[in-house]
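2.7 Reproducibility. Because tokenized structures are sensitive to small changes in the input, we list the exact sequence used for Histidine--tRNA ligase, including any N-terminal residues retained from the expression construct. No trimming or masking was applied before prediction.
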Amino acid sequence: MSKADKIKARAPRGFADRTPADLSATERMLAAIRESYELYGFEAVETPFVEYTDALGKFLPDQDRPNEGVFSFQDDDEQWLSLRYDLTAPLARYVAENFDALPKPYRSYRVGWVFRNEKPGPGRFRQFMQFDADTVGAASVAADAEICLMAADTLEKLGLKRSDYLIKVNNRKVLDGVLEAIGLGGDEHAHQRLTVLRAIDKLDRLGPDGVRQLLGAGRKDESGDFTRGAELAPDAIERVLAFTAAKGVDNAATVENLRGVVGSSTRGVEGVNELAEIATLVASSGYEDRVTIDPSVVRGLEYYTGPVYEAELTFQVQDEDGRPVRFGSVGGGGRYDGLVGRFRSEPVPATGFSIGVSRLLSALQMIKSPIVSGAEKPGPVVVLVMDRDQIAAYQRMVSTLRQAGIRSELYLGSSGMKAQMKYADRRQSPCVIIQGSNERERGEVEIKDLIEGAKAAEAIASNAEWKAARPAQFSVSEDKIVDAVREVLARHFG
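Resulting structure tokens (single pass, no recycling of outputs):
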């Protein structure tokens, strides 16, 4: 192919590759979350990446039609299929499909990739990982309170200090009461209510002034893109913003402030009473310093019907350029009593919580949490190839190491000694095995400890000293190769 015909190597916008270090850190993080969820009695289940589009429903946070916000395609029978945009809608389908066989309440957790066909940007990807836990079949807000306690315990298990985060709780019924009071009750105002909801959900990112624009005529962002607003009257805008600012000095004070905001709205009063009950349950468990009622939390998905919650990181760090970074929300969820009922004749209460794995991982790496910044696994021991006609002998060494449970590989390239050593360094090998003709005649191998050698190299001033010292390199008989390599690994990795 000519240079002009070469395909440009590039990842699609909004999608990212992950390195071995990223994968290793993620695995440790997921293991800690899994352990926390299982401690609360949740069990694993897995649903497919692809669902029928109508099963997902019109619940996307930033789009009104599923085929605009999700990746969709038609099957050979002309059925529309979509990549899942979260893990909750597929769970609702799974529970409905297996309803009679599942214990109720049904407690499950799921981890996996989700996909959003939305405009990518800094920290905003079209493919990202979530880790959910849900209780289906429990109408009591005690289930919501328990989810909040578990979220707090999980963040601490991941290495966050108690002062580093808050679990914020609100209730969509309270907001419904406020919207009824400003004339947005009834099905005919459903679209406008959803626009208000999405505007409030951006409060943390845009601040009151930005949300005020989205509640009114609309807002143009930094790129010049215009988002149409909810077209509320000025007094209605101020009443909605007053609702978001109703937080008091403690949970009890916030509850009382919200009673004043909802007035005589039956649904609003019901939501405030549920928040009061959650506050009591949280306090009885000793979590009142970690779980707080916050009216600014509404969540962007339309299917929430009651309590909603977010896990917010409160600390600020600096990036590589010294700029301040605040991560904000790294997880959230709420009650969605109507979602499973879409598939069944009777209502099925449900509540759940989702952790944004990638965002939380970035935060944990910033604070050097031991969960994600622990010692990496050593690379493979590399058996170097000094004589091409002895490949079988070198392969026998590799097989001996592998049978002993030692990660190892034979160098399969065509380069010489120097390039092979550079390759071993890039593979982060703890040591290499060297056998030339002289060693073979003696029935020995040379083992070079690359980690110890790097330390010694820092202290050796000249090339002559290096050759005289031959740092961290020693000979053993070929039948002792396993014991010698284990000794090197134990020295550095315990």
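The mean pLDDT is 88.
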